[in-house]
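Schema walk-through. Below, the input block comes first and the output block second. Nothing else is stored per chain. Lengths vary across the set, and this one has 557 residues.
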Amino acid sequence: MTNPNSNKGGEMSSSPRDVMTSGGEDDISRESARGEDDISRPTTGSRPKRSTRALRRIGTTTSAVLLLAAAAGAVVAGQYYAPADATAVPAPLVDVPAGPVTVVCAGPPTPTSGHGMAVDPTLGQADVTPTTRTELLTLPRGDAPAAEAAYIPLGGASQELQPAGDSRVLRTDATGSAIVQAQPAGETSALLAGATLARTTGGDLRGLSATACQTPATTTWLVGGATEPGASAQLVLTNPGRTPATVNVTAWTSLGVAQAPLLTGIVIAPGAQTAVLLEGALTGDPRLALRVDAAGGEVTAAVQDLRLKGFVPAGVDVVAPATAPALALTIPGVLLGETNLDDAATSAVRLVNPGEEVATAKVRLLGPDGATELPGAEAVALDPGVVLDLSLAGIAPGAYAVSIEADRPVTGAVVLARTGTPGELDPDVAPVDRAWTAAAEPRTTGILPVPALGELVETATVTLSNPAEVPVDVELVPTTRAGARGEPVTVTVPAEATVATPVGDLGGAVAAVQLSAADGVVAAVVLTVQAPDGELISVLPTVADPHAERAVRVDVR
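--- output ---
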């Protein structure tokens, strides 16, 4: 007879304990994790109990039903408990902790070809050699004193800015470029401003050239210069950092984007400067605009624009950085003089369209009496990649800003021209001086440097332009060469207008003017001096407050 207990895996011999041990919740979970194939596979030497298999199926089915119920519940809950509508979170400005401020001050202009600077036998060496001056100031902020700073010529010995009045000041006859490093003033960045000015009354370098000390950047836009015969454009790149920087330059001309393999992969050593003659890298063209991109570090970039007409000087100046392409631009410091039909050169607006589509721009003048359209520039078509000049001849003398509105991003600058009196060298050709002023962003605070006023410069005029549709009050506070701060003067600038204020009205021996306003204005200072054969001119932009520039916008997504 068969022993009824011999089949321990049989169906009827299973006790409640056996069922719970074989088919309990823990075993069902483990079996489910192994998959259906493992559940149906018999173990060696025995067959699964039917009750165990049934419970396993029940457990699996129950889990599936629960998952489906949970999903259905989530759908129903989503219908009755919809999430709240998303609201935009304003991106706040967050102050970055103050750190050292580094700028680069340019040297005087230099001849770019030959060894002589004049062929006029009536000129002496003093007439053709630039007289230069670099002036630096750090100003106090509230209760914080003026920051300490050092002027370090490339390859030269460091010089400290010395306390003078409320400020720290340095004045030196510059022979080359220099790096300036200013330490924080308390918990804020140094309020630093400086510029280099060079005046030459004769020879190839005849002209007045003023350059503000420049903050290094990874991308710089330069609008100005030419490479046609009689013109020389020298790109000057300076690396104030501690690591090598590699620079790539994109060039636009009157014909579009230029092929310039010699302007790619330019390596600049730390604390070094490189100069590139653009007429050797580009074909001859009367109009030029550049974008300078740096990798591995930040650099400063500027173009020395030098012109000759035969043997007669036709102007020298430095093309300073312009704001990046945008749909709306303002170019300050457009101080126009008397013009004649037979002038050797005329002032002009230069625009560049770096995009791949045609841009249409409207050009207006913001003058003392408000905004007026530039004749013939109500709807200017700018082909992709093309640089275009618009003449300002015939506009009434006065202080203006140029306002540009476009349907595609563009950027630009203005070149001011002053025609002199012909000399004995060539009685038929008059000398010319030129000054470039670039598009700038409206600012609520900044400094206007006024170098060598009363020494190398005779007059300085602050131009305040308001591109907004409501008036704005601007406070001007002068600082003298002795470091003393003068009394503030408030100037009201009407909507879409420009107001000119002689620096002499703010006090004597002024070295810098600090401006502040509730709403942004675009400002510049125009410097002039009378040479024996005509007026010389240059324009300096507003130097941004480094602490305001260190505030970054945080976008919460």
